[in-house]
Amino acid sequence: MSQSNSGPTINPADETISFAGLTVRFLLTGEQSNGSMAMFELTVAGGQRLPAPAHSHDHYEETLYGLEGSVTLTVSGKAIDLGPGQSLCIPRGAVHRFDNDNAADAKALCVITPAALGPEYFREVYAVFREAAGGPPDRAKIGEIMRRHGLTPAPPPPAA
Question: How far is CA 119 from CA 3, 72, 82, in A?
C-alpha cells in the first residue's frame, strides 16, 4: 500500500516465488533499500528437504527469524532447530543448509545484509527444477547459478 505517489511503500517487492514445497515471498529487495538489505519470508512444507546443495556465501550474512513451525538449519556441521521467536545469524563463509523434518509447515523471515541476493536467484534455480520435471536437476546448471549470485556450493558429504 502506497503512502503517497512518490513516498515509501509497504512491501515494495511483494513477489512470491514457489516450487516443490518451498515458497519465497520477497518483502524488500536491494533495489528498494539502496543495497543495504533484502528481506523475504521462506515457507518450507512439512517433510521438505532443501533440494539445492549446502552452500556458503562470502559477501553477506543471512539472518533468519522463526515465525511458524520449526526448521532445522545445519550450519558448519551443527544442527540447530529454529522455531517461532528464535533467530540465527549465519556468518559469511559458514556452510549451511536447511530441512523441515516435521509434519507441519515452517515459516521464517530471512534478512540478507548487504542485499547481495534477490528474487532473480530463486527464479533461475526454480526454473532448473521445473525443467527437470520431477527428475534430477542439472547440478552443473544449479552450481553455475549459485556462483553467479554469490553462493558457493559445498562439496557433497563423503559416502558412508
Answer: 24, 23, 23
Query: Residue 114: is the preceding peptide bond cis (ω within 30°)?
Result: yes
What are the pLDDT digits (tens) for 19-49?
888 999 999 999 999 999 999 999 999 998 8
Three cell numbers at 116? 547481495
Residue 95: which of 74, 113, 110, 114 has the closest Cα? 74
- Asked whether the beta carbons of 28 and 38 are under 8 A apart, the reply is yes
When computed from its CA atoms, the radius of gyration of the chain, rounded to whole angstroms, is 16
pTM recorded for the entire structure: 0.87
Tell me if 110 sits within 8 A of 40, measured CB to CB. Answer: yes
What tens digit of pLDDT does each residue of 85-123 get?
A: 999 999 999 999 999 999 999 999 999 999 999 999 999
